[in-house]
Amino acid sequence: MRNRTSALLAIPLLTSLLLATPSPAAAENVVTAPLAASQTAAAEVATFWLSDNGANLTAATPYNVQTAVGEIITKGSGVTPDTKPGSISPTPPLAGKTVAPATSGKVFFIGADGRPHWCTGTSVQSQYRNVVATAAHCAFDTETPGSPLGKWVFVPGYADGAALSGLYVGKQVFGHYDFDAYRDYDRDYAFVNVYGGVVSSATGEPANFGRLGDNVGGQGLAWNQPLGSAVDVFGYPAGPHPDGQRPYAGDTLETSSGLPVTATAPAVKGEELLAVESPFTGEGSLGSSWLLRYDKASGRGYLNGLTLSVADTDADQRYDTSLSPYFDGELASIYKAAAALWTGAVLPG
């Protein structure tokens, strides 16, 4: 059963810079649900995705739920910070690699139609190096309130059915009560705790591969930030534009950059959103990371947005804008709840 928490555990965030503490009222909005609650369940999920040389990974299609909105309004809209600005610093992988963000990847799951699908996800710094951020509707089943999506995993740097940086099975998902109860897309974000990674061994059986943050690092997190700074958007767009053209195949990580502005989207009752110019199509790019102060040399920055949908603002039949919730203190509360959970490895030993 899903729980709505009324308080958060106090947690020491190592290597973190916490500039503001979310209010108790914000903490009450945290909802959580189990994904793979035991090692046995997690091992079964890992086997499902890794067996037959990743056949189910290869067969998955980009998720097509709420991929585009109609009209968006940028004039006269606004966002309201609810606390002082706050941030948590990114962390590098143990190996210290400096590649274009190794933290980005695909989240795979079984949709309400019973078929495998994927969105984009991002590894985020946390105490136990085990947190993934994505859009809430890439973790919670919008067709069945009270239920998460099934067989949820994260594969950073995914390519052609291979999980070279490991496959990470979701254990618990944390989101905002207003998204769960009201489908409020101002709260379309989720943080998922994952078990330690697994890979296929020489015998074809899953083998432990270490913690997510140790292997690929974790992006920082920033909330209640003033507008005026550009963000770099990273995702795996794959769907068509309204005119039918498909400029992306979803096979490789794509990037765009722009200056966010405030926006509203009546179609999803989004009243405090951010919009940024981006040519990404909706399918596949849901959950794409918006990184503030991104450093190309290290591949790290501060997560300050997640793509929830896209729009064609000039009616030329080409998507030109991505939308994200505004990251405020209530989002920080959701993150803090997820960051407090230890997960461990999928396999004993």
List the helices and strands and how they pair.
Elements: E1 3-4, H1 24-27, E2 30-34, H2 39-59, E3 61-62, E4 68-69, E5 86-88, E6 104-110, E7 116-124, E8 131-134, E9 150-156, E10 168-176, H3 177-182, E11 190-194, E12 197-200, E13 206-210, H4 212-216, E14 220-223, E15 231-235, E16 254-258, E17 261-265, E18 270-277, E19 289-295, E20 300-306, E21 309-311, E22 321-325, H5 329-339
Parallel strand pairs: 3-7, 4-21, 14-20
Antiparallel strand pairs: 1-2, 2-10, 5-14, 6-7, 6-9, 7-8, 8-11, 9-10, 10-11, 12-13, 15-16, 15-19, 17-18, 18-22, 19-20, 21-22
Total DSSP E strands? 22
Task: Give the tally of structural domains.
Answer: 1
Shape: globular
Secondary-structure class: alpha+beta
The helix-strand sequence is EHEHEEEEEEEEHEEEHEEEEEEEEEH
What spatial order of strands do you see in the largest sheet? 6-7-8-11-10-9
**Residue ranges: pLDDT <50 for 5 or more in a row?**
5-25
Rounded to the nearest angstrom, the distance between the terminal CA atoms is 30 Å
How helical, in percent, are the residues? 10-25%
The major sheet is characterized as: 6 strands, antiparallel, barrel
What's the average pLDDT?
89
Rounded radius of gyration (Å) = 18 Å
The number of helical runs is 5
- Beta-strand residue fraction: 25-35%
